[in-house]
Write a structure and sequence with these properties.
- With about 100 residues, the protein is mostly helical.
- It has two domains: about 45 residues; about 35 residues, no CATH class.
- It is built from five helices and two strands; from the N terminus they run ααααββα.
- A two-stranded antiparallel sheet has the order 1-2.
- Strand 1 and strand 2 form a beta hairpin.
- Helix 2 crosses helix 3.
- It starts with 7 loop residues before the first helix and ends in a 6-residue tail after the last helix.
- Bound molecules: zinc ion.
- Zinc ion binds next to helix 5.
Length: about 100
């Protein structure tokens, strides 16, 4: 069975539910997804690597990472946070 495509709205709903303190099974049920999908997608956008404190910041939102080779969604902790932690680590565009 092929996983239904995740839209930006799906990711936003996932982040919102997670911030609200919902568990993985609760989020899966609310979104009509599998627990595995919720775990995988949340991890892909860096959701689970953020602390509870970081997630309480008012600027937290799903944004597009500025990786020029492969723009992708990630959980940003503020309007100035435009590059995900993974891409920062690879230093692909440190010079930019
Ligand atoms: Zn990135």
């Amino acid at each position: 069975m092929h996983e239904k495509f995740w839209t930006r709205a799906d990711f936003e709903a996932l982040v919102k539910l997670y911030i609200a303190g919902k568990s993985n099974p609760e989020i899966a049920e609310a979104l009509g997804r599998t627990r595995q999908a919720v775990a995988t997608k949340g991890s892909r956008i860096g959701l689970y690597s953020l602390t509870r404190d970081e997630l309480q910041e008012p600027g937290v939102a799903v944004r597009t990472c500025l990786n020029p080779e492969m723009p992708h969604l990630f959980v940003s902790t503020g309007i100035h946070n435009r590059t995900c932690a993974d891409c920062k680590k690879t230093q692909v565009f440190q010079a930019a």
